[in-house]
Amino acid sequence: MVKKGTKNGKVNKNRVAKSSAAQKGKAFSSSNASTNPDRALPDSKKAGFYRSKATINRLNMYRGKPDEAARHKDPNTVVRIQPDRRWFGNTRVASQGKLATFREEMSKAANDPYSVILKRSKLPMALLTEPSKPAAMNLLSVESFEETFGKKAQRKRPKIESSDLEALVEKADESGEKYSEEKDSNLVRDTGEYGEKSYVNERVFDAGTSRRIWAELYKVVDSSDVIVMVIDARDPMGTRCQFLERSIRKDRPHKHIVLLMNKVDLIPTWATRRWVKVLSREFPTLAFHSSLTNAFGKQALINLLRQYAQLMKDRKHVSVGFIGFPNVGKSSVINTLKKKKVCKVAPIPGETKVWQYVTLTNKIYLIDCPGVVPSDPACQDNAMKVLRGVVRAEKVEMPADYIDTMLEKVKKEYLLKRYGLPADLEYANAEEFLEVLARKMGKLLKGGEPDIQIAARIMIYDWQRGRIPYFEPPPLPAGAVEAMEVEGEGEGEAAVSGMMPAESGAEGGGASSSSAPPPVPVVVKVKQSFKELSCAVEYSEKDKTVEGAEGEDVEGEGEEEEVEGEEVEEAEEGGETEEGGEGISRGSGEKGEKGNGGNKGKKVQKKGKKTKGGKRKGK
After folding, report:
1. Which residues form the CP-type G domain (predicted)?
2. 392, 204 in Cβ contact below 8 A?
3. Which residues are bridge partners to 319 per DSSP?
4. End-to-end Cα separation, the chain, in angstroms
5. pLDDT for the residue 48
6. What value does the mean pLDDT take over residues 550-579?
7. What's the pLDDT at 534?
8. What is the DSSP letter of 476?
9. pLDDT tens-digit profile of 455-512?
């Protein structure tokens, strides 16, 4: 007889295992086993003493066994395809006539700096772009297809370039006349004894050429949809990175390049007009003056960036990268657009070390980049590096060696007026001028000898900060200027046209017609006025006004089509308007500049709107 409550009684039969009751209705096991990744640790123990959840899962994986049934299971199963003709017909077909039309439009767009090709993924770019390197032999030019195959096929003797010895001699003489020993890269030239160097370059001249700086540059280029190349208005061609331009056009043709000519307040207005006209033949070009209080070209640049953002509606954000030489003002341009100091700036090169993201609007991001120096031979001259502001003057060991180049570029009257020297001063070379300047400034060594190195360093400081009047004249003769002049009031246009591909008529199957219409360009414009642009440097009357420069107009390429502009949000936070009534004119796309870049267009500013000071200002 068995008693109730004993181990073998009725009560024990109804008992359930503790682990089963604990797991019933719960997603995680409450077991304290070492193989349970969800176990609860005792309160008195530290978590670092026990195995982590990832370690337990990894050990459980090691102990697990493969599922042999799943390994030998055939994943391919019998399926049925819907009996619809669209699965078996042609989806995107382009005839040869349509491809030829597209090729013509593509060639025009490649040469037009104001054309933007949209929806590249829908176009057969591999069929539209012609190979840059032709084949080794063009067989069709020797023997046509009709004469080789078909009814008119006939056997021909091989055609060679020289049929007899006389023709071969003539060809050899012609090749000898065209040969240039300087361009022959296969020649082994004697450069002196092995390992001997006649000159050791200073380390300071390697600024902007390190691998780290170039890695930062390529980060910015790869992350940007629009690349703004900032150049110095005093020497636009000398501060252009043409190596980068060629590289971007070749390897990244979907990225858009804009030239921004900064520091236009240091050169005469007529030179700014001409330089914008010359550079606009290659890329959209805008004149700019960086300033938090009295900027020029700010609204024109914002309008141009908004047009690119409008063309890229399918993208959530549009990134704009600013690249260029050191000390050209990339960070200052970003601060001007934001109207506050968001990037660290200084009048010395190398202040920006790494790239930096800045938010302009909800859709437009700005990327600051350190300055780089291209490896072109034209950019490797040490004297030009000093004058272009690539290196810091205080780190140059012998600054007097680079004053000769400065004296060649600057007019004598400007130097004498700048340093208060007599107008009849005569000097044979840079050393004599520096001796006179050092005595004038009181920079003397022991024994009363003039310190020409200190005087040279002061001149380099003044040059880099724009205190010495100097600019490179634009390479445009007066006859070409008169031919390019148009009627107007001195306004320039930087246009961007979006090229929309024609919709394929063969998407539902069948071949498309060869007479399909070409892509339709959509043109939007940003106008820039130079009426109120003033020069902060004092030039002579001859340099201020050049014959043929008065009334000169800057014309942007592309179709003249007025596009209604949308209201531009303020770049600064809170949407507060700038004092002075800066705004955007509606209907014509004209910009309104603050201060010296003003415009008479209708402004997008409501009456009685509050400004930062709390006072109401109306039109």
Report:
1. 214-375
2. yes
3. 365
4. 109
5. 72
6. 38
7. 84
8. -
9. 999 999 999 888 999 999 888 655 544 444 433 334 445 545 444 444 433 333 333 3
Give CB contacts under 8 A, 24+ apart, made by 475-484. 475/278, 476/274, 476/277, 476/278, 478/547, 478/548, 481/274, 481/548, 481/549, 481/552, 482/548, 484/277, 484/555
Q: Write down the pLDDT at residue 319.
A: 93
Average pLDDT over residues 188-197: 56
Decide if 364 contacts 318 (C-beta within 8 A).
yes
Question: Domains in the chain, please, with CATH?
Answer: 10-63 (no CATH), 206-375+488-564 (3.40.50.300), 386-464 (1.10.1580)
Helix (H) or strand (E) holding 291: none
Compute how many other C-beta atoms are within 10 angstroms of the C-beta atom of residue 188: 5
CA dihedral for 155, 158, 161, 164, sign (positive or negative): negative
Q: What are phi and psi of 170, to 5 degrees?
A: -60, -40
Q: Closest Cα partner for 441 from 452, 432, 430?
A: 452
Spatial separation of the C-alpha atoms in residues 549 and 405, rounded to whole Å = 28
Q: Element (H or E) spanning 385, and its range?
A: helix 382-387
* C-alpha–C-alpha distance, residues 383 and 406, integer Å: 9
Smallest CA-to-CA distance from 419 within 442, 450, 393 is with: 442
Tell me the whole-structure pTM to 2 decimals: 0.62
Q: Three-class SS of residue 491?
A: strand
Cβ–Cβ contacts within 10 Å for residue 97, how many?
13
Q: How far from the centroid of its chain's Cα atoms is residue 235's Cα?
A: 19
CA 570 to chain centre: 24
Q: What pLDDT score was predicted for residue 504?
A: 39
Q: Which residues contact 370 (CB under 8 A, 6 or more apart)?
A: 208, 213, 216, 217, 326, 350, 352, 353, 354, 355
The Cα 392–Cα 256 span in angstroms is 32
Question: Residue 50's CB: how many other CB atoms inside 10 A?
Answer: 14
* Exposed / middle / buried, residue 93 (Cβ in 10 Å: 0-12, 13-18, 19+): middle
Pairing relationship of beta strands 491-500 and 115-117 according to DSSP bridges:
parallel
pLDDT at 444 over 70: yes
Q: What angle do CA 329, 335, 336 make, to 5 degrees?
A: 85
Which tokens sit at 126?
Answer: 């591999």
Q: pLDDT tens-digit profile of 152-167?
A: 766 555 556 777 788 8
Whole-number Å distance between alpha carbons of 408 and 405: 5
Q: Amino acid identity of 428?
A: A
